[in-house]
Amino acid sequence: MISRALEAWFKVAARDLPWRTTPRDPYHALVAETMLQQTQVSRVIPAYNRFIDRFPDVRSLASAPIDDVFGLWSGLGYYRRARNLHAAASMIVRDFSARVPSAVNDLLKLPGVGRYTAGAIASIAFNQSAPIVDGNVKRVLLRLHGKDLEPDAKPTTDWSWTVAAQLASAARNPGVTNEALMELGATVCLPPPASPACERCPLKDSCKAFALGLTAQIPRPKKRSAVSELFCVSIILRDKHGRLLIEQRPRTGMWAGLVQLPTLESNDDWPALDRLQTFIQIRGGTLSPTDFASPILEFTHQTTHRTVRFKVVHAQLAPCNRKLVGRTWIAQADLKALGVSSAHKRAITAAFQMQGGLFSV
Ligand code: SF4
After folding, report:
1. Are residues 243 and 206 in the same domain?
2. Is residue 198 within 6 Å of ligand 1 at its C-beta?
3. In b/e form, how buried is each residue of 208-217, taking b as 16+ CB within 10 angstroms?
């Protein structure tokens, strides 16, 4: 039986991860599953430990300022998850008496919790018979059943959820079966270009892809989506104390709600000098053609769907400019506590390290 083989294997092969405590803490499971979305385990471990030290339970997270949460999310990216987790904690305190709900339908009401995360928490923390399907699970199931299907097509996803549900409902310990399935996909039944390590797989005797020699063909390669470009010019403006002017991004879209140097973005090409000068004037500064032509840093940041090109340029602050009232200035020591994307952190760090600054680094 598949679930028995998985559970027996998991007992001896599971990685020792900080959220795999006995018994499982549902709040810790929520934090871990949120962090693990789109992020590798090795990057999650130190961030998770820091986060749980600072927010050991759902009440401490719900009552914290969002900037503290962003500060502890540093290095994980996709900051929208941090905002959702914070909002989910508030909802749990308000609507569920500060207890993470155990039913999938209740879990799905929490901001940022989708079908996968709800299934993971319900099964792993509460041992409910709820299925989970992510990329790892889908790959294992496709190979196990010898299904040469388009992995991202809706019928394939529907099929995967059906099979995962059958597996969970037949399992003695649905949480262990689910977690074993995820672990197998992450450590043994590896995606291309790596090869699956079938010789040490607990499902080898039942696996159709292995029996038919199709492990390299299943799953089919994904179709690549088009990658667009974005051009960003980030501006260094210092006040008389040597602090940098920063701004907050809009609450929606890429890097939502995070802070950055004032940055002019353009989809087609680099913004023209006159457009940039107007942008800087509004913020109380001036930009010379020489500074425009000599950025202190240029780099490219790759996201899943975008190639983001950066230039960081130095501008002069106009003396005694009244428009600066109400703006936010930061010293280098403030940076740690702010939610900043890794790309913008690179720009801000370069600004602080810039030769000739008014303070030492
Ligand atoms: S036998 Fe190989 S292909 Fe089949 S599930 Fe195990 S690791 Fe994956």
Report:
1. no
2. yes
3. ebbeeebbee
